[in-house]
From TrEMBL:
Lineage: Bacteria, Bacillati, Bacillota, Clostridia, Eubacteriales
PANTHER family: BLR5614 PROTEIN-RELATED, SLL1049 PROTEIN
Residues annotated as domain Transglutaminase-like: 208-277
Naturally occurring in which organism (per UniProt): Lawsonibacter faecis
The name this protein goes by in its record: Transglutaminase domain-containing protein
Pfam families for the chain: Transglut_core
Length: 303
């Protein structure tokens, strides 16, 4: 006598077929290796106060350092020509290079370095224009930068490799899932930090991993660092969840494209990839429903 399959088993089987058929093993990781950003000095624009190393421009980033010798606040502004879009960053005044992504696609960018004069006023220290022609559209989201800062020796890189191996993950989706569940289950929201976070705060991904707590910016940076170290293109996105300033990640999956609705699957769509809300909400259905509604989110910046 044949056994009657339960509805649950049928749905699980159908979902498995969809995943296998639509998200097969990807060759993207092998095709686009994540590399450490380099300042080779081959192409440098500079004056006495600042230097912009554009030697690896085609990989979607520049390295900038301030050499003016003043003990003042330094800013970097990156503007894409023909748009009103610009990104403002803090830059150390110790002469150490920092890496900044160019995330607006091919075209001309102006990189300006500014010295604080008084209060909120700044004066131009140096400015140059570069023309970007990317070797790959994914490059800006595979390399470390000031916001997603990691290296081969970072603990998050080792942890990502450990998670992937333990899960036996082969496809990019399986790798994303392993990293996602680790982050939401092992990092708790730091309400004290959120209430007192200073302007210019930058995530320290290894510190967050070790302490097991962080704010939304930290969740997103840790996941982005882990996935980029596995050669999976990942955007750290900053914008608004409703009226709240927030950070989350978007991931590229071969055969699907850039996915901002991924982990929670209701039979029709994937939920927005937002580890902070899911973690702090403890998988509450109301939280999952909110996260799954992409209209609740509006992107402002991508790093």
């Amino acid at each position: 006598m044949k056994k009657k399959l339960s509805l649950k088993r049928v749905l699980c089987a159908l979902l498995a077929i969809v995943l296998v058929a639509g998200l097969a093993v990807t060759a993207l990781a092998a095709a686009i290796p994540a590399k450490a950003p380099a300042q080779s000095g081959v192409t440098v624009y500079q004056n006495a106060k600042a230097a912009v190393d554009a030697s690896n421009l085609a990989d979607g980033y520049v390295s900038v350092k301030y050499t003016g010798g003043k003990d003042v606040r330094i800013k970097v502004r990156i503007t894409k020509s023909g748009t009103t879009d610009y990104y403002d960053y803090n830059l150390n005044n110790k002469g150490t290079a920092e890496t900044f992504p160019l995330t607006g696609g091919d075209g001309e960018y102006t990189i300006g370095v500014y010295e604080n004069t008084t209060g909120t006023k700044y004066a131009s220290a140096y400015s140059c224009t570069v023309t970007l022609a990317l070797t790959s559209e994914f490059s800006p989201y595979l390399y470390p930068n000031q916001y997603v800062n990691f290296s081969d020796s970072s603990k998050v890189v080792a942890k990502a490799a450990e998670l992937i191996k333990a899960a036996g993950a082969k496809t990019d989706l399986e790798k994303v899932t392993a990293v996602y569940h680790y982050v939401v289950n092992n990092i708790s929201y730091d309400y004290d930090l959120a209430a007192n976070v200073a302007s210019g705060y930058l995530p320290d991904v290894d510190k967050v991993l070790e302490s097991g707590k962080g704010i939304c910016f930290d969740y997103a940076a840790v996941m982005a660092a882990m996935l980029r170290s596995q050669n999976i293109p990942c955007k750290l996105v900053v914008g608004f969840a409703g009226k709240v300033y927030h950070a989350w990640i978007n991931v590229y999956i071969e055969g699907v494209g850039w996915v901002d609705q991924l982990i929670y699957f209701d039979g029709k769509t994937w939920s927005l990839m937002d580890p902070t809300f899911v973690s702090s909400g403890k998988n509450d259905p109301a939280v999952l429903k909110y996260v799954g509604d992409g209209t609740n989110y509006s992107q402002k910046y991508a790093y």
